[in-house]
Queue: 2 jobs
Job 1
Amino acid sequence: MKMPNGISVIGTGSYMPPTVVLNNYFDRYGSSDEWIYSHLGIKERRYAAATGLATSDLAAEACRQAIENAGLSCSDIDLVIVATITPDRATPSTACKVLHQLDIHDCPAFDISAACAGFIYSTFIAQQFILAGNCMNALLIGADTMFSTLANKHSRDGVYWGDGAGAIVLSRVGKDSGGFIHTNISACGDAIDEVTVIGGCSEHPVSQEVVDDKSHYITMDGRAVFRSAIQIIPLIVKQVLKEAGMTLSDIHHVIPHQPAKKMIVQALESAEVPLEKTYFNMDKYANTSSATIPITLDEVHRAGKLMAGDNILFATIGAGWVWGASILKWSMN
């Protein structure tokens, strides 16, 4: 069995904007609360733009909570990574805007784009920085304003998405105390059209035509997503366990990405993951993309459900396809 690498979570935080959009909002667009909840497991989602909040605003508040939870100050942070596909601007990075809001100076800061797998990707990247001795305390944020910026709110296609941010502080704690046991990230690039935003970037720059045909909104082939998720998630769960030299009996908690409850339940059942070990919160927040896993981790941590020494399994799949899974031995009390 692989041993923890001594790089672990020492603080968590999350922030959801205050405006709640219930399922009945979509009655006028041909959907219903009954259909959305029975098919997707969603009851409501949060809406950042309703109160003038951008992705960096959500991220910065989640960061403040995580830094306080870690018992640190902003001056202790020496790496900031924001996983997002809904940046405030094309440039500068949302990470730079988070630095500005937190008054953090003179440290590496950048965004990564890996859709719903972005947060797992960011944890793997940060581990390499820490292992190389290039930083001590990494601030990692999954933040997306999917409902505010990419969802077509005047269509039933908007039902899937929500806004939110989650953050962690990653630091050395000593191998005996815990840390990541194994992380596996990968991609295939074979599904670039299944979940996509075509308009507004270099392939189809902003134009009146883009606005008129609504190609600046996110589109999704639901059947293709379902088929791929129920195939890939069981594979990556089994793979990361095998590579770590562990079995599901060694896992105490499972925190998956949550695009739709039926989908993730079927995928986890295919992997023989006990659902009683699995945490869901998509009923409250819908799909917040890269923010889903860190938001859930923060909620589970603050609810007192994690004990030092517990093993947590994370698994996710995102547009492209990109995917990742990791196992963390929890070190906090």
Job 2
Amino acid sequence: MNAPSFATALTTLVVLLSATPAAHSDDTPPNPNAAYRLEAIWNNDGSILRPSRDSDRHYTNGLALFFTYQPDWAQAAADTLAALEPAVFAEATPRSAAGFLLGHRIYTPVTIETRAPLFDERPYAGYLYGGAFLQYDNLTPTGPANGVATLTHLEVNLGLIGNSALAEPIQVGIHDQFDSPDPLGWSNQLEDEPTFQFYARRKWRLDLIDHEPNANPHAWNAQLIPEFGLALGTVDLYADLALTARYGLHLPDDFGPPTLFNPRSATALDQPQTNGWSVYAFARATGRIVVHNIFIEGNVFDDSPFGTEEEPLFAFFEGGLVASYQHNNCTFEAGYSQTILTDQFENQSTTDGFGQLFIALTWLY
């Protein structure tokens, strides 16, 4: 999706979300199934999720909860937005989904065992936020509308950083419970500040092993999932490119595994599933052009002494395993991965990374 298309899609989305939710158009048959998914994602750079490490530094913890479903208003919005791209969707009715999220993140400098301010380092920061997203794809019962499976993800988040985000009592309380070193420098955290953030992402899915649709649901398959993303707001301002490769048994009808920053697609929640196991391994590489990161540069609206210069080019690499089990109308899914990051700010003295664990429960009525 090019920049004008993203701008047009965002404008249309805002108009649709501000209006009264609409029902399906007369020529769009209602879906008899209702599906819902609850998902929790946890990131941590310490010894539990990353056994090779036992210290907190930089991006130290993140937790997000997601609720995803398929309401009529999401289908109405998807129909309108898909009509702006006839080359991608043709006359096909897009599959759609919507969701809500609540998240919390903690950032610290390279060491937490000093009360002294650490300048030219990543500052202490807490981030509490909530948001909503819309997704739609071009898949039909006979395959993609234009020959390539395509997903669009649009997301808006509102939040706050600073003392009101409660990062200090959370980290101090957890360290007390596990007899870990006391974080002493939270008096140097970023000032309270509201945040606004918009994300837009386009993904494509390419099957490397060709199977007839639904011919053998337990067949092994491999996929490549390229994606392009934009972030606009007071928290992040960037553009990135990513490529996910995955291989496994009975790959799910989605567009790759989730991250805390990149929710999983849910446009196939209401599709029939086959009982049994799905297991796959994946690897993902992302390159990013960074213009602004509030957790490195510091406050946007306040003149904070804390913060440093971010690196304009940044990359991260993730690898992991995902498994799910389907029984009748319920699916339980879990995944684990490790992520390694290149330097994010000037004169960074450490190589950072974190582990991720997610669990999800999907049920279909």
